[in-house]
Design brief:
Elements: E1 2-3, H1 24-30, E2 36-40, E3 48-53, E4 57-62, H2 67-77, E5 86-91, H3 94-100, E6 108-118, H4 120-127, E7 138-142, H5 145-155, H6 158-162, H7 166-172, E8 175-180, E9 183-189, E10 193-194, E11 197-199, E12 201-204, H8 213-227, E13 231-233, E14 235-237, H9 241-249, E15 252-264
Parallel strand pairs: 4-5, 11-13
Antiparallel strand pairs: 1-2, 2-3, 3-4, 5-15, 6-14, 6-15, 7-8, 8-9, 9-12, 10-11
Helix pairs in contact: 5-7
Length: about 260
């Protein structure tokens, strides 16, 4: 298994041609928007690649028949020092799924993840009937350095992993927030941007759910993507019915379901 230098990352792009929006994190790494590593089975003529992102999302692409490469990937996955305490390994073909059924990946559970594609016409039609007035005492804010600093430091420190600095998140990321008494209670933000896509990440504090806040910040996120000529992107675990329902409401069509190995120590 050979690790590519940053200036070699584009060598693996042909292997992602059929995956597209299912791996926004991968494009963010390949395009040097966010940090990550890429390993291949051959430096000169790679036919398989293993990509890891700084936020713990990994994937395998290309031909799954190189046993030496596959063994090396499994060994990498089973070494806890290679991870941030978490990883999510996406497999997008039956071939890769069959291949990794042969390995014992320590502390990793096999789950199902579903992937959506944005349907702009559906979004336009659906959003015509959505009218959300946030309650008195709540405030909507678009991404700015003050709220993003609070978001990264106090609300969701994962964003310190995926975005190197607060300034860089403001420059290249997307975020829309609803606050109460200066505390974030609902947010739609982008953990990854790449390949012309912006991944959607929505969180609403439990006590403020079912009030339309996720829909509000989701619509704002999508409209910003449209203004920047980015395609908003959605994926979630197959059993997350609330996420599936909101995705459909916001104009996303289900396109695929694939296995994922979820490791969390």
């Amino acid at each position: 298994m050979f690790e590519l230098s940053r200036n070699e990352f584009t060598k693996v792009l042909p292997m992602f041609s059929k995956i597209q929006n299912k791996a926004v994190f991968a494009f963010s790494v390949i395009e040097h928007v966010q940090n990550g590593r890429i390993f291949v089975n051959s430096r000169l003529d790679p036919s398989a690649a293993f990509l890891t992102s700084c936020g713990g999302f990994y994937c395998l692409v290309g031909n799954a028949s190189d046993c030496t490469f596959n063994d090396a990937v499994a060994k990498f996955l089973n070494h806890k020092d290679n991870h941030i305490g978490f990883y999510a390994l996406a497999l997008f073909t039956d071939e890769w799924e069959r291949t990794f059924q042969k390995y014992q990946l320590e502390h990793a559970n096999k789950i199902k993840r579903i992937y959506f594609r944005f349907n702009e016409q559906k979004f336009i039609e659906n959003s015509k009937d959505i009218h959300i007035n946030i309650d008195e005492g709540l405030q909507y804010e678009a991404l700015n350095e003050d709220i993003s600093n609070r978001y990264r430091e106090d609300f969701y420190t994962y964003y310190k992993l995926v975005w190197d600095s607060n300034e860089y998140f403001n420059e290249c990321g997307i975020g829309h927030f609803i606050t109460k008494e200066n505390k974030i209670i609902s947010v739609c933000s982008s953990p990854y941007v790449g390949g012309g896509f912006a991944e959607i990440d929505i969180i609403t504090i439990e006590e403020h759910k079912c009030r339309g806040l996720a829909t509000k910040v989701g619509i704002e996120f999508i409209n910003e993507c449209r203004s920047k000529r980015l395609l908003p992107n959605w994926s979630c675990h197959s059993d997350n019915q609330a996420s599936i329902s909101l995705a459909n409401k916001l104009g996303f069509d289900l396109i695929a379901e694939h296995p994922m190995y979820w490791y969390n120590m």
